[in-house]
Amino acid sequence: QKEVEQNSGPLSVPEGAIASLNCTYSDRGSQSFFWYRQYSGKSPELIMSIYSNGDKEDGRFTAQLNKASQYVSLLIRDSQPSDSATYLCAVRYNFNKFYFGSGTKLNVKP
Amino acid sequence: DVKVTQSSRYLVKRTGEKVFLECVQDMDHENMFWYRQDPGLGLRLIYFSYDVKMKEKGDIPEGYSVSREKKERFSLILESASTNQTSMYLCASGPSWEAGTYEQYFGPGTRLTVT
Q1: Pairwise CA distance, residues A26 & A16, whole Å
Q2: Could you tell me which chain A residue has the CA closest to the CA of B94?
Q3: Which of A102, B37, B46, B92 is deepest in the core (most CB within 10 A)?
């Protein structure tokens, strides 16, 4: 079993601040990385994917990947109350194996 | 937008019943997946299919089977439901990996309770 570790939180940030969510994975063979947002009672929604080292930006979201240190992070700038949700990190290992972390709960306080 | 639909949002079944969960996607995706999600355990892959009539076991296939007779439809079958199969079941679809992308798009989920 490949492990994907996330701090369960909750992570509380004030509105307008930067939220930083982190994820570590156990296998150096991991090849693709994903962040999903999941509102309570809803299904996961894809936010970003990242495949190579470095940063990838999409609007207020930035994904950061460091394969040498085996971590991937998600930064949310100008956090809004509507960003309050659980954020799932997912890792693709080998051809067809996908592993998800248990998620970090984010609370953005108005 | 990708649309993945699941046949039921909530389902209650009795121990020993045969249960069918249906999933349909409208994006002509080659890949389809079934996961279950349990508190503290995250999402765990049960089965996935990369083409019609093709399937591969995920991490927890025991007690489950799948069927994919048409590209857009992927069914999960609980052969004889047990209480430890009470869970949220999530279907996902994604494009062919030949394009070098591996995103998955989830349906709304089916919360199954086995009594």
Answers
A1: 33
A2: A46
A3: B92
Average pLDDT score over residue span B22-42: 93
Cα–Cα distance measured from residue B27 to residue A99, given in angstroms and rounded to the nearest whole number:
23
The tens digit of pLDDT for each residue in A57-89 reads 999 999 999 999 999 999 999 999 999 999 999
Chain B closest-CA separation from residue A84 CA (Å): 18
Q: How far is CA A51 from the centre of its chain?
A: 13
Residue B97's φ and ψ, nearest 5 degrees, are: -75, -10
For residue B110, what are the β-bridge partners?
Answer: B89
Residue of B nearest to A102 (CA): B42
pLDDT of residue B28: 92
Mean pLDDT score across all residues of chain A: 93
Smallest CA-to-CA distance from A99 within A25, A41, A18, A10 is with: A25
Q: How far is B77 from chain A (nearest CA, A)?
A: 20
Q: What is the pLDDT of residue B79?
A: 94
